[in-house]
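Continuing the series of single-chain predictions for the mutant panel. This is the parent chain; the variants come on the following pages.
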Amino acid sequence: MSLDDNFFFSQHSLNIFRRCPVRFQKRYIEGLYWKGTRPRGDNIERGNKFHILADRYFSNIPLNMDFFEEYAELNEWIDALKKYVPQTARGEYYPEYHIKIVEEEMKLQAKYDLIYIDGQGSIIIYDWKTEQYPLDYGRVSNSMQTRVYRYVMTVGGDRITGRNVVPEEITMIYWQPAFPERPIELSYNKRQFEEDRRILKTFIKTIERFDYDSYDKTDSLKYCPSCEFNYFCNTDRVEYHSIFSEEEIELDNWDDIDEIHF
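Parent structure:
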């Protein structure tokens, strides 16, 4: 079996492979998905609701915050968002915007929490992170998400700008409603763009040519307790609340994970 011809790599799927090729194989090649495997908990529920409300806010849809009266912190988060990114008459807002690109057989996609294009041509990518701990600059600046999001915007941003995008026009901002005064702003340049292109192309070719039958699963053993496929490999069931969250995977630093497959 191999990846479907219509499969587009995302930062999430790339990081899953870096953690464990077997989990990538189960999810994206064998197509094993089932309900109930998403991690649960108050923090995750609150984070999901925040993303929904942020989308509504920038789409000019009434927020109906009365429904969330029991979530005092969520109300504070939305108020902080309105203060940090107030909607002005200038510029255009694109919440929950999805871009796919095909470049020399490399298929990539990114779903952005918010894209803002100001009247001067600058592009700001906003990403909301709802963890209860402050993000580390070094971690996010070198994360797969940062690489994919800025690269995809450079290559495919013309569909919303109407012109070719150059890396220097792009800024990516990670913002946490729990720490509204500590945004992480990451500029972009041509050197970084070329480096991302090289890394992403090499990595995707590695995945496409990977020999799953010869892979030593013990190389990914430390991730097994947080994987829904642990039973397939070790006959150990995993509690749903223990499965690692998407945000945890998104923020994996390129240098944080053992080189298990190269």
